[in-house]
Design goal:
Radius of gyration: 14 Å
Number of helices: 1
Helix content: under 10%
Largest sheet: 7 strands, antiparallel
Low-confidence stretches: none
Order of helices and strands: EEEEEEEEEHE
Number of strands: 10
Structural class: mainly beta
Mean pLDDT: 91
Amino acid sequence: MPRLYQTKLWQLQIPDGWTKEGSNQLITFFRSDGVGILSVSMVEGESPFQNDRAEPFRGRLSGTTWTSNSDINFMRIWTLSCRGRQLLVMYRCAAKNAELELSEVDEILQSMSENGSEAM
């Protein structure tokens, strides 16, 4: 059963087996038996990661996404807009393991939205 994780700005659903570490500016999610790390951070100004191949992200938050894949590393990056702030979301793993967690990572990103609580 997925669990809701919330910050003052955004929220998402974490699948069973995933753990959260960190707070405020950098939060990471991972499976203890997994192969990669999903990180979410707030970025001031322009994203340090710009890419000509970025495609529109089709989720609850607007933004872009792209993939970087080498023989060694796989990385998917999202730059998302949330309540006037810029979020940088990155999933990283070894290239040989790229397909193992992607469906769960996609579900997590599809669940990501503005936090509905104004009182936080």
